[in-house]
Amino acid sequence: MNLKANILPMTDPYYGQRLTFVSNAQHLYVLIMSWNNDVTYAMAPYKLLALPLGSWPLQKYDKFSLLRYILCCLGMIAMLILMYVEIYHDCIDTSEKIDILMLTTCSIIALSKISIFRIYANNLTRNFTSAINDYLAIDTEEKRTIMLRHAFMGRAIYYSIVLFGVMGILGLILTPFITSDNNAQLNVSMNEFTLVYPVPTPCTLGRFHISTNLYLLIFVTQCILIVMTCTANLGSDTLLFGIILHICGQIEVLRFEIANFGVENKNIDQIFSKLTRRHSYLLTHAKLLIDAISFVLLVQLLVSCILICTIGLQFILALKTSDAMMIAKTVSALVTFMSQMFAYSFVGDYLKYQAEEIAKSIYGCNWHRFTAKLMKNILFVIARSHQPVQLTAGKFFVVNLETYMSILKTSFSYLSFLRLMLDA
Hints:
Strand content: under 5%
Structural class: mainly alpha
Distance between the termini: 62 Å
Shape: elongated
Helix content: over 70%
Oligomer: single chain
């Protein structure tokens, strides 16, 4: 692998700030002079989760970051192998099967996300570097307010997702102890524990005579794997939501500039040229981001649909047997996956809304005072803003609130049919 990279200059057409990129996506290196408080407020939470996994876009893509990525992948592959062995032996109860199903699917999604982040590192780094320069180039309080409002939206989603993740991790770790019988304690000789693990492994580990020290080592290792899988899955989502919302904020800032365009009749043609190039610049970065996460969204939607239907069926069975623990577990899983899908749909719908509002902003400015040539150019900008900018799964399935409602409607129709079949 070539560790040398060519430096490519790139200039923001609106702010005129020069950005430096490294052409090799695996070793993309961004030089940032300083992080002000606004940049720290907007970016620091995402770095906290992404950097340990080797998927932080602004890291130095060296051997150490590659090592973190490889270790993370090996951990999730080990989780998948362990789950496969448990399913193959089929000696677990229904509750443990749900845990295995969720861990398996979460490991697959998390592995695909961090891998895509490495493959499309150039796309993500260009977006995040542009975001930092946007914050460093703030020149009015109105722009700062708009950008910080979108940063707050990203942080709100971030903390909500982290809360769900912590609840899921604690549920997997503590549930075996809550549901186990009174024998799940240290025996009289103080040398062994009854085999209770965060990851359901009675088929692989429950048959062996394991000492206390080895048990504690396996227990801690499984906890680390669970935290790693949850972080790679939900932490990657927060990273995507944060940068997409920043692009939405920049489009709103552009709308603010367009709304004030023409108030002062000085250098109108030059200012309009800068605004149109800024518009094209933002759309290009949005497309780079959409291309990077298209496959991830496809995997996420397919897996989420399957899990909603499967766990929903288990919820119906739990209601029939009045199993309180199973009901709580299935409800928690359903809420988590549905909230995750809703976040993607909301962000995708909001991005499309902001892009389409450019046309209204241009129409609302003082275009009637412009020259005939400039009026014609405005028509081209309006036509371009009507072309949809939206998240797509696999580049053919649009991700927005309408498709989210369609997925929920289909899933609950399927569950309603199953419930009628069970009652028959």
